[in-house]
């Protein structure tokens, strides 16, 4: 074998240990990639959950405002009723 052939054989030879090391490296890269993907997915789900909670909170606030407005309207109607009863000559009613 010529020197060139020996050098080429040595350069292209990959030991089993090298293969195992490369496979372990690939597995680690795949695991890291999966971990990054799962972490990102978790962040997205947490963000969506937070948005849903904010929507519920906003909806609860809107509903409470509607309830308060309806109560105020009812009180105004009741006061108007009392005025009209008094003007019509009926005795005031007790609530």
UniProtKB/TrEMBL annotation:
Keywords: Coiled coil. Residues 60-87 form a coiled coil. This is WGS project CABT00000000 data, contig 2.39.
